[in-house]
Amino acid sequence: MYEGSSSIRYDEKNKSFWLNKGKEELRLNRLQQINTNKAKNVIIFIGDGMGLSTITASRIYKGQTQGNPGEETVLNMETLPYAAFSKTYSADRQVADSATTATAILSGVKINDGTIGVDGRAVRESCSSLANPDVKVSTILDWFIEDGRSVGFVTTARVTHATPAASYAHVADREWETDALLPSDPACAANGIKDIAAQLVDENPAIKVILGGGRRAFFNKTQVDPDTGKANNSNNRVDGRDLTQVWLTRRQQEGHRARYVWNYTQFTSVAPDDVDFLLGLFNPSHMQYETDRDPQKEPSIAEMTEKAIRVLQKDPNGFFLLVEEEDTLLIVTADHSHVFTIAGYSKRGNDILGFVDPIDPGQDPLDNMPFLTLSYANGPGPSRGNLTGVNTTANDFRQEVMVRTQPDFETHGGEDVAIFASGPMSFLFRGMHEQSYIAQVMGFAACVGPDKSHCTENTGNYCKQTTSGAGHSGLQWSSVVATAASVLLSARLWRDVLTN
């Protein structure tokens, strides 16, 4: 298929290849019909830091691992029929953090840097700024619960971390994951401020599936972690409670079939038909990157997504699932990008994890040292150096950076990110949007939230309940799991930088 050492296919050199390829894409797009049915279910994938350059690099990487040049590869998320862009700035920052962007996506409200689930009147680290309960924002999870539908979330981060916490918590500082990290300010106690883990367990009893990392915020300081064998973590609770047992006991007292699991063996033993509520915490902190994951200890995001869907889909009214199609609105987006670039004029098929191979000697660096295709504007990686002979494809290799930062720190990027969507009302994603618009579409499509004025028989097809598609839901869920895998693949490209 490929000519000699070249990575260009024979047929690609003929103009008819590209013309026919374009005609086929046009034909498929012309066949696309607008779906104005009501969304029974909504599933949203948020790829933390999954900017456009990360998607591009992931596409190439996937193709190259399959023995192809890579550039022509299509990720599963890229097959979704509708695409748009979202602007990721927050209420007070050009470049936003995950707490503010996730809140915008899930609530429809842009907020201040570092806060979660509270509007722009809240001041970071200030308990007194939360005195007015009206500063709290409601989210798509709240809207689904109020409508009598099931909800859950899956993350490879701590379940109390910024993005998942934005679905249920209301705090003036994203760092308040455990009561050990709450400030000593008397205003905190006076205003009844709880840490994020406590809010999840005490104030959100309707969340049916919670899967991710972060056991440490649920354990008290005397508890020994079942995996590490250690106790008295600085992030353990000081109130003496074991929130995993509090959660489990309450669900059982309510008459629900509930399970708490912390390792892969326990996870695989869960039969979705036999549980109503599932809590899984598979690491004291964040779960491992896929390349580092021990499959005997932690499930993959695809496995967790599949299990969550199988638990939630038993609800005949529908469900919402946050993951960090006929009757299901499926959305894939990012909370923000990273300062990550793809540079050089490399030949087709050049190793995306390797060095640039300039096509002209005049393009060589002035220092005559090789340089990488992938790099960061800032981060904890090394500055420019001679990498001759270095294995740049190793899992523990860190890309070069222009500006070195403190260990385990790198800033986000401020450029727009992509939105991919399919299913009911997905056609409403087109062009450029505020990130907060995403919540509006989810609520509109599912007929939930503060504005349901369109959900009447007088609005034509808008939000009528779909009755078709029952016979091929298995295919839809397989597609969702494949999408989870493509988001996971994108994570491979930023695995070496701990994100905010």
Automatic annotation (TrEMBL):
<feature type="binding site">
    <location>
        <position position="48"/>
    </location>
    <ligand>
        <name>Mg(2+)</name>
    </ligand>
</feature>
<dbReference type="InterPro" id="IPR017850">
    <property type="entry name" value="Alkaline_phosphatase_core_sf"/>
</dbReference>
<feature type="binding site">
    <location>
        <position position="48"/>
    </location>
    <ligand>
        <name>Zn(2+)</name>
    </ligand>
</feature>
<feature type="binding site">
    <location>
        <position position="161"/>
    </location>
    <ligand>
        <name>Mg(2+)</name>
    </ligand>
</feature>
<dbReference type="InterPro" id="IPR001952">
    <property type="entry name" value="Alkaline_phosphatase"/>
</dbReference>
<feature type="binding site">
    <location>
        <position position="336"/>
    </location>
    <ligand>
        <name>Zn(2+)</name>
    </ligand>
</feature>
<feature type="binding site">
    <location>
        <position position="412"/>
    </location>
    <ligand>
        <name>Zn(2+)</name>
    </ligand>
</feature>
<feature type="binding site">
    <location>
        <position position="163"/>
    </location>
    <ligand>
        <name>Mg(2+)</name>
    </ligand>
</feature>
<keyword id="KW-0862">Zinc</keyword>
<feature type="binding site">
    <location>
        <position position="324"/>
    </location>
    <ligand>
        <name>Mg(2+)</name>
    </ligand>
</feature>
<feature type="active site" description="Phosphoserine intermediate">
    <location>
        <position position="98"/>
    </location>
</feature>
<keyword id="KW-0479">Metal-binding</keyword>
<comment type="similarity">
    <text>Belongs to the alkaline phosphatase family.</text>
</comment>
<dbReference type="GO" id="GO:0031214">
    <property type="term" value="P:biomineral tissue development"/>
</dbReference>
<dbReference type="GO" id="GO:0046872">
    <property type="term" value="F:metal ion binding"/>
</dbReference>
<dbReference type="GO" id="GO:0004035">
    <property type="term" value="F:alkaline phosphatase activity"/>
</dbReference>
<keyword id="KW-0460">Magnesium</keyword>
<feature type="binding site">
    <location>
        <position position="335"/>
    </location>
    <ligand>
        <name>Zn(2+)</name>
    </ligand>
</feature>
<dbReference type="Pfam" id="PF00245">
    <property type="entry name" value="Alk_phosphatase"/>
</dbReference>
<comment type="subunit">
    <text>Homodimer.</text>
</comment>
<keyword id="KW-0091">Biomineralization</keyword>
<protein>
    <recommendedName>
        <fullName>Alkaline phosphatase, tissue-nonspecific isozyme</fullName>
        <ecNumber>3.1.3.1</ecNumber>
    </recommendedName>
</protein>
